[in-house]
Amino acid sequence: MNPTGTNTAHDSVLQARIDDYWDQRARVYDDAQHIGGRDAVDRELWGRVWDAALPAPPARVLDLGTGSGHAAFVLAALGYEVTGLDSSAGMLEIARARAAEPGTEGEAPAFVLGDACDPDLDEATVDVVTSRYLMWTLREPLAALRRWHRLLRPGGVLAVVDSTWFDAGIEGSPPEFIESYGEVMDELPLAAAGSIDATAERVRAAGYTDVTVTPLTEVLAVDQRLGTAPGHRPRLQYLVRGTA
Question: How big is the chain by its Cα radius of gyration, in Å?
């Protein structure tokens, strides 16, 4: 059942379609995360982004919509105890394989299959909830944010990164994306948002305090220099942070 208890069958069909897209595109998407010698640059760059936003380790972090583990591995290298959750089995297969490789910095993240809108975890059991590029693809972002609030211990931190990826529509996106997402975009409230304020407003509405929005200008500069995934162009990203 979804967090609001409504439209369960419809939500299941919608989520299955989204998951199928990411299962099929998992390898291509992951490869694009490592183009242009980005690995070392991203570890340092995103290490600074997360370090500035989160309480000092050790702390228990739940990384939602973890995909192939980009944020989860950076967070683990910083010394956090990380669980990465995603509903795409194809993405998690890549993440788990990477976690098993020798030389992983820090304690390897644990990766679990689950619904980011409603993670199957006990309340008040995590110190930090993170996500990177998840908010735009949520079916019910406000309900999800409220659920995450309950998962956090008092004083816990929410830190989500996203952008206004489709403020001008999906035209120009890769054909396979248009084919898969074209019929569901209208049901994703933040997908075509014209401002990151739409995300920040929902974070506040979900009960988080001290909500801040930080433009990630350094990330944009790196994307402009090293490139982005095929079919995408560099966009200014933002980190939205709040306290439970």
Answer: 17
- The answer to whether residue 3 sits within a structural domain is no
Chain center to CA of 93: 17
166: tokens are: 């489709």
- The identity of residue 103, as a single letter, is G
Closest CA to 86 of 29, 33, 134, 39: 134
Give the model confidence (pLDDT) of 134-149 as tens digits: 999 999 999 999 999 9
Pairing of strands 60-64, 81-86: parallel
Asked if residue 83 belongs to a domain, the reply is yes
Q: What is the pLDDT of residues 13-61, one digit of tens each?
A: 878 888 898 999 899 889 888 877 788 999 999 999 999 999 999 999 9
Is residue 1 domain-resident? no
- Where does residue 19 fall: left (phi above 0), alpha (psi -120 to 50 degrees), or beta otherwise? alpha
Q: How many domains does the chain have?
A: 1
**How many alpha carbons lie under 13 Å from residue 244 in its C-beta half-sphere?**
25
pLDDT digits 0-9 by tens, 144-185? 999 999 999 999 999 999 999 998 888 877 778 888 787 788
Tell me which residue of 170, 225, 243 sits closest to 35, measured CA to CA.
Answer: 225
**Nearest Cα to Cα of residue 94 among 43, 41, 33:** 33
Per-residue confidence (pLDDT) for residue 71, from 0 to 100:
98
Question: pTM above the 0.90 mark?
Answer: yes
| Helices of type H across the chain | 8-32, 38-53, 70-77, 89-99, 141-151, 175-181, 197-205, 217-226
